[in-house]
Sequence to fold (199 residues):
Amino acid sequence: MNHYPKSIRNLIEQIAKLPGIGNKTAERLAVHLLKTPRSEVELLARSMIEMKARVRLCRHCFALADGEICGTCSDPGRDDDVLCVVEQPADMVAIEKSGAFRGRYHILQGVLSPIEGVGPDQIRLRELLQRVSQGNFTEVIIATGTSVEGEATGSFLAERLKPMGVRITRIASGVPMGGDLKYIDQVTLKKALDARHGV
Fold:
């Protein structure tokens, strides 16, 4: 890398700080940007600066938004009776891509993790309880991950929400489509058996 001019070395160092990108990939991207027309590089730089300037958390659900309210919360065609609770904005995006859900969302912005010092006050729990108590939701779907922290967070949310008289459900987890049982880990297989349903 020392064979490159300082400006390229600086760019490689900055790109390598991105998650999942090592020095080799950063070097390839930097050289690619060097060969890219200036107008495209400027467009990329402007897009990054604009994203940092404009993107904030939606004041209703805490999704990423360009304004006060995200597109999902401002959509009048959504089902106001069902609320889906997820850990991060990327989880909401994944569910939206599936096309399987048309209700409202609440993004916790994390999970409970006592080891890392993340308690109920560090996630959007207070706001969730307030939304459910003031809203007309008939069901709250807990869609936290299946990690130890995700499961613990899901159980904690269920305990806090039950007294509110709303139906609490948890997304099913188990064997993926096309999965071969002999390659599935024991925890996933147990969850699949526990969540079995009639056919």
The helical segments are 6-16, 23-35, 38-54, 89-98, 125-134, 148-161, 186-194.
